[in-house]
Amino acid sequence: RGGNNDVDILVRDMNKKELYSKQKAHYDTATFTAHQKGVYSMCFSNEFSSVTHKLVFFELRPEVFETLEEEAGINPPKPTALTLMETSLDNIHVHLSQIEEYQTLYRNQESEGRSVSEDLNERVLYWSLLVTA
Fold first, then answer.
1. How far apart are CA 81 and CA 109, in angstroms?
2. How far, CA to CA in Å, does 62 sit from each of 54, 65, 71?
3. Which H helix or E strand runs over 20?
4. pLDDT (tens digit, 9 = 90+) per residue, 43-68?
């Protein structure tokens, strides 16, 4: 949030190899697989607008699992007929994962809207002070 929303994004692995790069991003999603254990770095740059500060939201999510067996580490999942209880649990797992993603999205949108309203409130306050003075 702030300015023209022109933030540069750079993601590197522990060997300084560039995994992802984008310039002047407003909203973006990047997906990549970490093939090695180690420290990965993310850099957000605001060099295009040094006057206006930016507020950046990001989220790191682990691999998306299709079933509870995959998430539990049972690889490959055994090809068995699922009971009604297991099928219900898998459906609940999928829906709760979607709800979690939606909550994160809505929190970010609420934060952005709150920032806009607070900026507007501050400007109205200063305008009111000038008019009444």
1. 42
2. 26, 9, 10
3. strand 18-25
4. 988 877 667 777 787 877 776 666 77
Q: Is the pLDDT of residue 15 over 80?
A: yes
Q: Residue 7, Cβ neighbours under 10 Å: how many?
A: 22
| 116 CA to centre of own chain | 20
pLDDT score, position 38: 86
DSSP letter at 48 equals T
Q: What is the pLDDT of residues 84-107, one digit of tens each?
A: 888 888 888 888 888 988 998 898
Query: Distance between CA 11 and CA 63 in Å, rounded?
Result: 17
Residue whose tokens read 């999942």: 77
Q: Do 68 and 93 contact (CB within 8 A), yes or no?
A: yes
